[in-house]
Amino acid sequence: ESEIRRKLLEMFTTGEEEYVSGQKISDELGCSRTAVWKHIEDLRKDGYDLEAVRRKGYKLIKKPELVTPDALRLGLDTKKLGQNICYRETVDSTQKVAHRLAQEGCEEGTLVIAEEQVGGRGRLNRAWHSPKTTGIWMSLVLRPQIPPHEAPQLTLLSAVAIVQAIEEITDIKVDIKWPNDILINGKKLVGILTEMQADADQIHSVIIGMGINVNQQEADFNDELSSIATSLSIEKGEKISRATLVQAILKRLEELYYQYLKAGFAPIKILWEAYAITIGRNIIARTLKGSIEGLAKGITPEGTLMLEDLEGKMHYIYSADIEL
Ligand code: BT5
Q1: CATH assignment at residue 31
Q2: For 78-114, how does the pLDDT look when each residue is reduced to its tens digit (9 = 90+)?
Q3: Strands, sheet with 175-177, edge to edge from the N-terminal-most edge strand
Q4: How high is the ipTM of this complex?
């Protein structure tokens, strides 16, 4: 399969004529015209922009923009975050790779990023749809000296960094839904998964997994997701450079992270509240212990959600799925 792909791409890039006819492709690859069409469609799915003109054939307009270390380093303005990059074309989950690297003692700020995940995961082992070259699928290794119970604050911090970077690069206004979602008009654009390696009183590493829908079109989402998910490109009506967005996220994340290590969560909390849509609304919080309905009063100085139920009793929620 990859051999066919290589041959096909070679025909487009070395061919002297601009268009490569379907017949020529089928001759050189030794496959039927229908198979040619299928290979072209596969390339399109992977982000290649191919023009088809009747009687002339196919022309390669644009290769997909990748998030290779070279592409990410050119213009990356950070001291630590993303200075060490582990890049994969295809991976089970960047989260798994990052856990392994963290265990092996990789430096703080190590970034694992992939064009595609085939086993991307959300919380509670839910599947995270991560198609090739259309989104940002990455995991960052941090080693903060904070008590383990404060690690969820890094989810909120990361959400702020991502929101600010999205606004900077695309001018699109997005909302944060506690604890780990970023939405546009109620549809999910970003999911964050914070995991850690720690013992009772000490963190060894925190792994922040970030999944960001960037250049998917509506047809790229399956039935289950099309009504609940969106991408920056769908909202903006144009393609967005993933590499530029990754760079902006790492820059903001680094600024906020060092501010957090110095000054604690309070300044981050103020920023977070400015983007949060969960607060001051009636919500349902589904936790593993059951559902609670009530008014979201805010978050505590630690980042825990305060929910006042219908009887006026206050609940402190550490993790849940929120229904608005
Ligand atoms: C999350 O979980 O939102 C955290 C997602 C973290 C993904 C990143 S990608 C890089 C790193 N490597 C990984 O393997 N994971 C991290 P949760 O709140 O549990 O939401 C999961 C739910 O979101 C699913 O059950 C779907 O309903 C929905 N979903 C799945 N894929 C989606 C997508 N691409 N866009 C929007 N929603 C999606």
Answers
A1: 1.10.10.10
A2: 999 999 999 999 999 999 999 999 999 999 999 999 9
A3: 85-91, 111-117, 135-142, 202-213, 187-199, 181-184, 175-177
A4: 0.99
